[in-house]
Amino acid sequence: MPRYALKIEYHGAPFVGWQRQTDHPSVQGAIEAALAKLQPGTHKISAAGRTDAGVHALAQVAHCDMRREWTPFRLSEALNFHLKPEPVAIIGCARVADDWHARFSATERRYLFRILQRRPPATLCAGLVWQVPQPLDIAAMQEGANKLLGHHDFTTFRSTICQAKSPMKTVDALEIREVHEVWGREIHVHVRARSFLHNQVRSFVGSLERVGAGSWSPDDIRHALEARDRAACGPVSPPYGLYLAGVGYPEDPFAQE
After folding, report:
1. What is the reported pLDDT for 204?
2. Which own/partner pairs from 80-87 qualify as long-range (CB within 8 Å, at least 24 positions apart)?
3. Which residues are CB-contacts of 86 (< 8 A; sequence separation ≥ 6)?
4. Which of 14, 111, 126, 146 has its Cβ near the most Cβ atoms within 10 Å?
5. How far apart are CA 171 and CA 192, in angstroms?
6. Which pLDDT score is estimated for 257?
7. 23 catalytic, yes or no?
8. Is 221 in contact with 147 (CB distance < 8 Å)?
9. What is the residue-wise DSSP string for 49-88?
10. Choosing from 23, 52, 153, 252, which is the catalytic residue?
11. How many helical (H) and strand (E) elements, i.e. helices and strands, does the chain have?
């Protein structure tokens, strides 16, 4: 059975998250339903990572198995036709080896979190950014973010329902950048690691926002990390500012598109 890698963009608002659920709409369920229109039967696709309810994706990656050969272009076009009107799009498709796996072959995941700093209500960006009214100190946030780099026990920044066997993870990059858009000043938080704990990025951002607002010092991030206690975490940021921005592999399956 030929296997295909899919690069997927989606707006997370209508969904309970990536993972299929029996009685609620999910991104996985929407794509599997579209696949069933092309190839009748049950489909089970695997993704590089599971995003929570309300979280978006710029470049989620999943793989599917088909009974017959498709050209990647025609498969993506057919899926996009059957995905309408769901806010899900296949933006890349590639034939991959039969043992290639969207999750287990991945070497890194990249997330973006968008914070919009302005007082008037967001209109064009509503549901796509976390809006905060007060000015945030970018330099202080970066100083705090630097405390989270490297290999640590991230119990403090891990959801209590996280199913990972260990709280030990390695954060390879955590950068705070200022972006000026016509609708206001945005702060972008870029995070890169091989894998993440449940709610880890949103926990980082919520605590770093406290640093930017002046309620915490950068050293408070270090103290929270060293506490290894979920109660030491700052408020968890909302899901709608978070995007799965990309997935890395030893060889990019979409490079020849």
Report:
1. 98
2. 82/33, 82/34, 82/37, 82/38, 83/30, 83/31, 83/34, 86/10, 86/14, 86/30, 87/10, 87/11, 87/13, 87/14
3. 10, 14, 30
4. 111
5. 6
6. 58
7. no
8. yes
9. -PPBTT-EEEEEEEEEE-SS---HHHHHHHHHHHHTTSSE
10. 52
11. 5, 10
137 in Cβ contact with 81 (< 8 Å)? no
Instruction: Please list, in sequence order, all residues whose beta carbon lies within 8 angstroms of the beta carbon of residue 253, skipping any fewer than 6 positions away.
Output: 5, 94, 96, 100
3 state SS of 94: strand
Q: Give the pLDDT of residue 163.
A: 87
Q: What is the mean pLDDT of each run of 10 residues along the chain (257 residues)?
A: 96 95 93 95 93 96 96 97 98 96 97 96 94 96 98 96 93 96 93 97 98 97 97 96 97 85
Tell me the backbone φ, ψ of residue 151, rounded to 5 degrees: -95, 120
Pairing of strands 88-96, 3-10: antiparallel
Q: How far apart are CA 135 and CA 89, in angstroms?
A: 35
Domains and their CATH numbers in the chain? 3-105 (3.30.70.580), 108-245 (3.30.70.660)
Q: What is the DSSP letter of 17?
A: B
Residue burial 18-54, b: 16+ Cβ < 10 Å; e: rest: bbbeeeeebbbbbbbebbeebeeeebebebbbbbbbb
